[in-house]
UniProtKB/TrEMBL annotation:
Gene3D superfamilies: 3.30.450.40, 3.30.70.270, PAS domain (3.30.450.20)
PANTHER family cross-referenced by the UniProt entry: DIGUANYLATE CYCLASE DGCT-RELATED (PTHR46663), SLL0267 PROTEIN (PTHR46663:SF3)
Domain PAS, chain residue ranges per copy: 13-83
Naturally occurring in which organism (per UniProt): Methylophaga sulfidovorans
GO molecular function, one term: catalytic activity
Cofactor(s) required, per the database record: Mg(2+)
Protein name: PAS domain S-box-containing protein/diguanylate cyclase (GGDEF) domain-containing protein
PROSITE patterns assigned: GGDEF, PAS
CDD domains: GGDEF, PAS
Entry-linked InterPro entries: DGC-Regulatory_Protein, GAF-like_dom_sf, GGDEF_dom, Nucleotide_cyclase, PAS, PAS-like_dom_sf, PAS_fold_3, Rev_trsase/Diguanyl_cyclase
Pfam families with a match to the protein in the record: GGDEF (PF00990), PAS_3 (PF08447)
Domain GGDEF: 306-436
Signal peptide (UniProt feature, chain positions): none
Amino acid sequence: MSSDLNDLLDQKKLESLSHYIDMLLDAICIVDKDGHFLFLSAGAERIFGYTREELLGKQMLDMVHPDDREATLHVVDDIMKGQETTDFENRYIRKDGQVVYLLWSAKWASNEEFRIAVARDISRSKRSEAIQSATYAISEAAHHEESLSALYKRIHQIMQTLLPISDFVIALYDEPTQNLTFAYSSIYVDQESLHAHLSENLTSWIDSKKVCFDIENGWIKVPLCSAEKVIGSLIVKVGAEHINNEDSQNLLEYISTQIAAAITRKQLHDRLRFLAMYDHLTGLANRELFHDRIQHAISRALRQQTELALFYLDLDDFKQANDNFGHDVGDALLQQAAERIQSCVRSTDTVARFGGDEFVVLLETINHQQDAKNIADKIRQAMAKVFVVGNCEIYLSTSIGIALLPAHGNIEKILLQHADKAMYEAKRLGGNQYII
């Protein structure tokens, strides 16, 4: 067989092989020792978004994500030293600006003085991993964050790992009042103009339960739906490439359901915790929470050798008012009494309702027993003022028993017994006074 015929057959084999190579989804790349593209398969066009003509001669490193360049250079050095690499991951920036995750296998061909590498697009699996991780993180945050505000901040941080978000807002919708409140917003948001825009279009996006795009301002609004009910909206500002982007829309819709579930769970948890630790009528601490607070206060006072005071209060003539005006008025009296007591103490002190018309006040730190006397007198004067409930004007007073640590003991039970006994003594003496 002539050499010309052999050359022709070899050329046909090469062309046939090249055709099969171009069918591969992976990109086959050949670069020179300085990292410039010499050959690319058709898969490279699909992965990088450039034509082969645009890529030939282009410096490979120019397309590597800035955060991955240093690690990529270290791997290139190893390859140039003869080390074959089969599992290196990095990110490239496509022609359209999107980030693509690649898994590389590469080898240096010393005889030909070029690197040959195969790149596989693993963006889809990476995105699935990121979504799964974000979903888990949001669920974990819903269980462990101490407050809803902390939960919203954590959700913001998690979402930034999925999308290039510049502004982030969680607006909650109150169905009975049909009002929107910003439960969380990034510092860049013009809340006034955003609230006006949302309120103007409130009915449409509440009813549609669909993702809405504000292309002019770069906003994506995603309804937060829980049990077929819209509880609010997730509103994010992203780059132009994500506006009307189907992948971004699907991602936001999926994550929004996780956020709505997390918010609902956290609200329920906080509500149950409130019911367990606070009096449902007055919103004051109940016995359980008071027990926890005084235990910590006693330990701190003993450790720091400071004083604290405990008040036991009872409303004089409350039973008579409750019987004369009814339980609804009685409940209103208790609520007003709770507010008056709280207004007389510091935010660091604890006011608790033990039941009926009995209240307890914990002054965590006092410098002298005169401090306790001053606050007790302040409470007594506040309670002596007329109570107005509807058309009723009612006068009450209060009897207060005071226990001091360390003067009267350093155990909760002993302090409560002393304060209770002193309160009954104040009541026996006619009420509207305090006894230590």
